[in-house]
Specification:
Strand order of the largest sheet: 1-3-2
Shape: globular
Strand content: 5-15%
Structural class: mainly alpha
Mean pLDDT: 91
Number of strands: 3
Number of domains: 2
Radius of gyration: 19 Å
CATH topology of the largest domain: Arc Repressor Mutant, subunit A
Helix content: over 70%
CATH superfamily of the largest domain: Winged helix-like DNA-binding domain superfamily/Winged helix DNA-binding domain
CATH class of the largest domain: Mainly Alpha
Length: about 160
Amino acid sequence: MNTTEEDFSAGLLHIFDNIVLTEEKALTKGYFEDLSVAELHTLDAIGPYGEKTMTETATALGITTGTLSVAIERLVRKGYVQRRKDERDRRIVRISLTRAGKLAYRMHAKFRTLLVRRILEPLSEDQKELLVHMVKNIDDFLEEQYKKYEEQDLRGR
């Protein structure tokens, strides 16, 4: 790697680490200190409006429904999520956020909004478009890599 690539790589890692650390610190200092970052991301995947199925939520998080079931059980006990069986098909479990879950969701959304505004505010419209394009390219690449690893797992490697 050349110096530019090394600097960019270090910057990406630093950003990722700082986002995770900041989320953790905000949780430990705030009203939602009983939530982990993973649980907060589960609340985000469920969303504040309506209900989602366990399968929809697990897919959005990229985890199995079994793994999600464990997380949902904890979130139900903590009072952030409610679940119910579908009235038409009892095999389907529907989950939604409680009032406390919606509040936690909104607080996390506020953090993301502040982050995005702070980054975009000093940029021109052209720079904003370029940055959004670059972030999408990074996300697309990471998604491709993830799918390759998933395919390898399915083939048993």
